[in-house]
Design goal:
This protein is α+β, with helices and mostly antiparallel strands and about 100 residues long. It has a domain of about 60 residues. The chain is built from two helices and five strands. A five-stranded antiparallel β-sheet has the order 1-5-4-3-2, with helices on both faces. It is flat, with a radius of gyration of 16 Å.
């Protein structure tokens, strides 16, 4: 059941991201340009990385000083696109719940 909930949450996130992308095209440029913009304007540094689909790289940038965050996607052709951004970033570390019967 927890695996199904995790899969559903990722599916929901993908649908929400696709909806957001459909309503406003992502801003794309060279990787160097986007990273420089995030660093210079928002003081953001890379905090997390993952593979999205079969060929894109997702990265989370954030700033403790400003509280801003940005999610980017780097495509196989080298373009980096800003997919989402926001405020009030917090780093959270939580243990996963134990599997099986808690008794």
């Amino acid at each position: 059941m927890p695996q199904q909930l995790l899969a559903l949450s990722f599916g929901l996130a993908a649908v929400l991201a696709a909806t957001q992308i459909a309503h406003s095209a992502p801003q794309c440029d060279t990787r160097e340009t986007v990273i420089a913009l995030l660093a210079d304007r928002y003081n953001e540094t890379r905090r997390a990385i993952g593979i999205a689909g079969q060929s894109a790289v997702m990265e989370l940038f954030a700033s403790d000083a400003t509280g801003t965050w940005s999610i980017t996607m780097t495509l196989p052709d080298g373009r980096m696109c800003l997919m989402a951004s926001g405020a009030n970033y917090e780093t959270v570390t939580e243990d996963l719940p134990a599997r099986g019967d808690p008794a």
